[in-house]
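User: I'm writing a tutorial on reading structure tokens. Could you give me a worked example: one chain, its sequence, then its tokens, then a sentence or two explaining what the tokens reveal?
Assistant: Sure. Here is the example chain.
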Amino acid sequence: MNWKEYTGLFFGSFNPIHVGHMVLANYFAEFVGLNELWFVVSPHNPLKERVSLLADHHRIEMVNLAIADDPRFRASDIEFHLPKPSYTIHTLTYLEEKYPGRKFALIVGGDNLESFNKWKNPEVILERFPLLVYARPGFDGGEFLKHPSVRIFEAPLMEISSSMIRMAIRQGKNMRFFLPPGVWKYMEEMNLYK
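And here are its predicted structure tokens:
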């Protein structure tokens, strides 16, 4: 598969975006060879609770700050303008219509592949788009592991999560090196997650 023809779509709440996200994006750009990678900031994942989800404009701004000097990456607020709740199949269909010359691939964690049967129209997604999966420890793949559209990659993983960062900030801990510098500065200036 020539991944150079593909734009990778990295969906997430990015609440906040952190260095673990940046390492994964860099891996898929450099080691897999994607043409471009878009961070698709989700307004609200229907499979997750809406606890402590920062306002959309703050999260898209932090993604823009994180990727500001890197032409391989792009921030997308496309899901902010689509009907809620946000379903990946609707976003993908919209992107296909808006960018007919592009090929898209989804970048997901192993946990997402294991729960992929809970997504809206998972078979339709797999018919139309490859899934690039970064495996996590204890990953078993679920029912779609052997699907021809699924590719597993041994990307470097960091035991960092946005929820851990939010909790640490609430406890008054300095999380500066867990975040891209522009994101840390913005969070400090805006007094976010405190």
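What the tokens reveal: Residues 3-159 form a domain with the Rossmann fold fold (CATH 3.40.50.620). The chain has a mean pLDDT of 93.
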